[in-house]
Sequence to fold (116 residues):
Amino acid sequence: MRIKSGVTTRHHKKKKFRLAKGYYGDKRTRWRAVKQQVEKSMAHMFVGRKNRKADFRSLWIERINAACRQADTTYSRFMAGLKKAGVTLNRKMLSEIALRDQTSFRKLLEISRAAA
Fold:
């Protein structure tokens, strides 16, 4: 006796069609087009998630650099000084401090200069 896979196939297709909701034209109604477009979209989503991390890191570095240059130093000197001083704040936190709390950032600049 053979086993038919109707329920499994329907569930599998239904899932892909749900993901294709909102696509233009045949890309949401025809199975082959749905399959191809959803696969391509998911590949782009994966790459986008990786790119977002790099985008945010460069934004944080730009913010820190701008704050450093207002205090007549550069980003690289500032970070090198912090590393020598043993300060282990990440770039995200440093950029937030630079934006929201200038007095604390000036103290960090002094620490960095003293260590360098």
Notes: Residues 77 and 108 are 12 Å apart (CA to CA).
